[in-house]
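User: Here's a structure from my thesis project, written as structure tokens. My advisor, Dr. K., wants to see whether a designed sequence matches the one we expressed. Can you design one independently, without my sequence as a hint?
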């Protein structure tokens, strides 16, 4: 019988492939699947001793480290909910995410995270650090938990309905939406990813994406482990173009998954400083933002492997559609492939399914899809209609069942796979005492697909400049949300109700971007 929890699937893998490598920390040590399972069980026992109960939310903010993987799996093993957070958040952002998730504990690496700890302290949330010094040691928590009952973990039985993962996805509202995902959601998505890419115990990959993001966590890490395969963590704890191919070669990688921005960096590196030898890859996967067909063809030519573009989102526990492996059908540049593991339909505004090639909203339903946003009835009402989850993306299915995306309904800015709510940036800008009005918007960008810009109207008598605005944003926003360019103006287009028209603002400033002086609208 197929596993109905991710925890159950990984335990099956540890029994089936006990001695095969599960995790390699580049240049340091390897962990087998059996050893990983043992470490997770012991870390789970420590979490129970530290007072973590089933149903509690545990926030984790780590680089891409083995401690994160073990503590993530230990958290869901004790039937608690793991909430991975970007280590680059400001203290103010951590306060929001820790509060909104109702986290009971903050977990960090031994060196800590000043902003996260300040937020946890403000919210009176206990802070624990985790350290694994080598393959033979147990993972050490500090403060050291009280003596635990060695049988306490074995008494806990994971259930498919356990909420295992809690992530936030920014929408077009200023408040990011909380997405609870169950053990069944996780195992369903992992099974779908394993199936479409035919992942097995012979596969190996290097993790290049942050593990706090659904793409890296589900597609890179958990699907590899769930197949009995192996993953390598770069020594730096993050992607490095200078070590990527040496890790891929040293650890016999057979594939990798990345966002278009990283593919572009890898290509640029190849052109300027090619490797003596490249590994023979089964495929290269691209997801989280649109991949230009020209980049796809350059990747295939450079590295001799099919590039498979996919379509995913947090609410679907990542994967929704993918181009197939060559033996299973053509992969079409400009398409995100065929639906994988769930139903997909193109619906009009009345919920009527559209015929092939007709445009409408991409909608899905299936075992990998969240049951709803946390404490957000308004968002749930609009996202779950006619028995489907509405993605907010416009697209069409061709006569061969391949999905083509044509635009986003929501005003999301997609910067290299990082989804940014412009209203969230607006709110920070407008909080500056010298800014009267502000609007953030996306503009095309060769490297990231989209980049974020903003326009502001200063308060009367203010001499605020671009540098001051940027400095303020850097203090109050994660680095990837900071506008790359700031326009200072004295008017912005509005509707009759006073709402700023973001699309017109973007068009106006794109037209004026080459001029030194930004004129008024209508001038």
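Assistant: Designed independently from the structure alone:
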């Amino acid at each position: 019988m197929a596993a109905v929890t991710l925890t159950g699937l990984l335990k099956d893998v540890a029994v089936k492939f006990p001695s095969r490598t599960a995790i390699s920390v580049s240049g340091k040590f390897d962990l087998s699947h059996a050893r990983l399972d043992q470490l997770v069980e012991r870390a789970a026992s420590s979490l129970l001793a530290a007072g973590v109960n089933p149903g509690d939310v545990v926030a984790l903010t780590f680089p891409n480290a083995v401690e994160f993987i073990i503590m993530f799996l230990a958290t869901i093993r004790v039937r608690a909910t793991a909430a991975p957070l970007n280590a680059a958040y400001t203290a103010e952002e951590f306060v929001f995410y820790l509060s909104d998730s109702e986290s009971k504990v903050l977990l960090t690496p031994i060196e800590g995270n000043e902003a996260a700890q300040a937020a946890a302290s403000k919210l009176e949330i206990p802070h624990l650090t985790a350290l694994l010094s080598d393959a033979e040691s147990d993972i050490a928590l500090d403060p050291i938990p009280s003596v635990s009952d060695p049988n306490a973990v074995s008494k806990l039985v994971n259930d498919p309905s356990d909420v295992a993962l809690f992530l936030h996805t920014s929408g077009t509202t200023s408040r990011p939406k909380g997405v609870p995902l169950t053990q069944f959601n996780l195992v369903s998505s992992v099974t779908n990813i394993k199936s479409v890419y035919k992942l097995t115990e012979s596969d190996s990959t290097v993790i290049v994406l942050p593990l706090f993001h659904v793409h890296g966590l589900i597609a890179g890490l958990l699907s590899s482990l769930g197949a009995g395969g192996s993953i390598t963590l770069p020594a730096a704890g993050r992607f490095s173009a200078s070590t990527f191919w040496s890790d891929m070669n040293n650890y016999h990688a057979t594939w990798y998954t990345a966002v278009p921005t990283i593919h572009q960096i890898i290509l640029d590196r190849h052109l300027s400083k090619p490797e003596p030898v490249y590994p023979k890859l089964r495929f290269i996967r691209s997801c989280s933002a649109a991949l230009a067909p020209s980049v796809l063809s350059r990747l295939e030519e450079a590295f001799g492997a099919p590039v498979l573009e996919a379509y995913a989102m947090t609410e679907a526990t990542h994967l929704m559609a993918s181009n197939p492996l060559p033996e299973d059908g053509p992969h079409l540049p400009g398409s995100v492939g065929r639906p994988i593991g769930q139903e997909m339909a193109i619906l009009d505004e009345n919920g009527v399914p559209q015929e092939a090639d007709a445009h409408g909203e991409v909608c899905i339903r299936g075992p990998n899809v969240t049951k709803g946003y946390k404490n957000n009835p308004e968002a749930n009402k609009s996202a779950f209609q006619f028995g489907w989850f509405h993605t907010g993306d416009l697209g069409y299915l061709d006569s061969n069942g391949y999905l083509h995306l044509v635009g986003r309904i929501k005003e999301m800015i997609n910067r290299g796979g990082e989804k940014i709510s412009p209203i969230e940036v607006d709110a920070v800008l407008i909080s500056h005492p010298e800014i009267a009005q502000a609007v953030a918007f996306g503009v095309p960008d060769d490297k990231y697909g989209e980049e974020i810009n903003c326009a502001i109207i200063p308060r009367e008598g203010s001499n605020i400049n671009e540098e001051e605005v940027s400095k303020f944003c850097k203090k109050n926003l994660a680095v990837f949300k900071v506008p790359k360019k700031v326009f200072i103006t004295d008017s912005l287009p509005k509707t009759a109700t006073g709402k700023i028209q973001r699309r017109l603002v973007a068009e106006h400033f794109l037209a004026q971007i080459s001029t030194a002086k930004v004129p008024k609208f209508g001038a």
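When you compare it with your expressed construct, this may help: The domain at 6-394 is CATH 3.40.50.12780 (Rossmann fold).
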